[in-house]
Design goal:
Elements lengths: L10 H18 L6 H17 L6 H31 L7 H36 L1
Helix pairs in contact: 1-2, 1-4, 2-4, 3-4
Length: 132
């Protein structure tokens, strides 16, 4: 007899977790030797958020699918801003250190910003659907 009771997180809880891990991931980029930890944390949360969509309720699955567009649009804007900063560093020497930081930490930063964007978009969708 298999009576497995697993604690399942709702989409709203996963969005909050993604927001927290994204914030922590960005903070960890400023600490030496925490790049791998950031990578592993963000991959685990993103995998849980996206991969766990089969266990979400139908409304939560729809919210997740609708938040993808907003989240990846925000990620695109963040990457374009980072690229603009890197290009500006060629002309202005005072932003050279920021460009070097972006070049050294881009994988962790992209994953952390993706967690932040999915968390923010998910919470906005959950807030608008609960108020409607």
């Amino acid at each position: 007899m298999n009576t497995e009771n697993r604690a399942r997180m709702s989409y709203r809880q996963m969005a909050i977790l993604a927001l927290v891990v994204g914030t922590i991931g960005i903070a960890f980029q400023f600490l030496p030797d925490f790049g791998l930890l950031t990578f592993m944390l963000t991959i685990a949360v993103l995998g849980g958020l996206i991969g766990g969509s089969g266990s979400y309720e139908q409304r939560d699955r729809q919210q997740l699918e609708q938040s993808y567009q907003k989240a990846f649009g925000g990620l695109l804007l963040a990457v374009m801003a980072a690229y603009a900063l890197i290009e500006l560093s060629r002309w202005f020497l005072f932003v050279g250190n920021a460009a070097a930081f972006l070049n050294a930490h881009w994988p962790g930063l992209i994953l952390s910003v993706m967690c932040l964007a999915l968390g923010i978009a998910g919470l906005q969708k959950a807030k608008t659907s609960s108020s409607a």
